[in-house]
């Protein structure tokens, strides 16, 4: 029977993952990392755009008497806020995950 606490197993697994990732990062030159990250960034942006198109999100224009760029062009400000709060972390995290998976799968 294994009496090792669950958090100790997770800690060991995470330490092993960090060690292997560090070895693989140092194995390849910076150009490889750059190209993989640029590709993953382009892929992440494409996935985000496809996701936003497929979800058909619509933002309601707030009622206001102010005349500014948003009201003249009928552009809701909450759309920008949503894209920044959801899109930026989504693209960044997905790009990093793709980069890490590429390093994990790549064998030399």
Provide key terms for this protein.
4 helices; mainly alpha; 75% helix; 108 residues; single chain
Please characterize this protein's 3D structure.
- The structure is a single chain.
- The protein is mainly α and 108 residues long.
- The chain has one domain.
- It has four helices and no strands.
- It has helices at residues 6-27, 30-55, 69-72, 77-105.
Tell me briefly what this model is.
With 108 residues, this protein is an all-alpha fold. It is 75% helix and 0% strand.
Q: Tell me the fraction of residues in β-strands, as a range.
A: under 5%
* Topology as a string of helices (H) and strands (E): HHHH
Q: What kind of sheet is the major sheet?
A: none
Which structural class matches the secondary elements? mainly alpha
Number of helices: 4
* CA gyration radius, whole angstroms: 21 Å
**Structural domain tally:** 1
Q: What is the 3D form?
A: elongated
Count the E strands.
0
**Portion of residues in helices?**
over 70%
Q: For the terminal residues, how far apart are their CA atoms?
A: 38 Å
Low-confidence stretches: none
**Averaged pLDDT:** 82
How is the topology of this model organized?
Layout: H1 6-27, H2 30-55, H3 69-72, H4 77-105
Helix pairs in contact: 2-4
């Amino acid at each position: 029977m294994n009496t090792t606490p669950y958090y100790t197993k997770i800690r060991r697994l995470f330490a092993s993952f960090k060690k292997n990732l560090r070895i693989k990062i140092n194995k390849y030159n910076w150009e490889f990392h750059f190209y993989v990250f640029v590709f993953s960034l382009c892929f992440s942006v494409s996935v985000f755009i496809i996701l936003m198109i497929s979800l058909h999100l619509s933002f309601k224009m707030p009622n206001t008497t102010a005349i500014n760029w948003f009201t003249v062009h009928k552009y809701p400000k909450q759309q920008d806020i949503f894209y920044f709060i959801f899109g930026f972390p989504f693209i960044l995290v997905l790009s990093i995950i793709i980069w890490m998976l590429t390093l994990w799968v790549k064998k030399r």
